Each structure stands twice: as structure tokens, then as C-alpha cells.
Amino acid sequence: MKRPRDTNRLAKAVADIATGQAEDTKPGTTPKRANGGHARARSMSSERRREIAKVAATARWVG
Question: What is the CA radius of gyration of the chain?
Fold first, then answer.
């Protein structure tokens, strides 16, 4: 359930969740769009991941 932006509707949604009339979304789940990075990392060799990490670390520290 997506939380509404309107204050009154949000209060009703929270009350419904608290009383068990509505089910809350699971906050710990990963959105579907975020799974691509995990799949890419699984498909790469550890050497390739290490190379990418070195380039990223250098970019962060060198500026």
C-alpha cells in the first residue's frame, strides 16, 4: 500500500494499519529496479569486480 501525501488520508491509512484493516508494505524489500546491480555483480568474476572497485575508490579519493 502506497502511503498517501494528504495528511488526513495518511492518518486514516495509519489507523487502518494499526487496527489490522489494511496491510502495511514491507519496508525491507528491495525495489525491482534495484535488482539489476545485484544480477550484474553475480555475473562478473571477482577479478572484474575488484577492478571496478579500484577505479571507483580512486575516483572518490583523487577527486
Answer: 21
pLDDT tens digits for 4-37? 889 999 999 889 988 988 887 766 566 666 678 8
pTM reported for the whole predicted model = 0.42
Say if 14 falls within a structural domain: yes
Residue span of the structural domain in which 36 resides: 7-62
- Residue 1, in any domain of the structure: no
If residue 19 lies in a helix (H) or strand (E), which one and from where to where?
helix 7-19
Do the domain assignments include residue 31?
Answer: yes
Return the ∠ at Cα 13 (arms to 19 and 7), rounded to 5°.
135
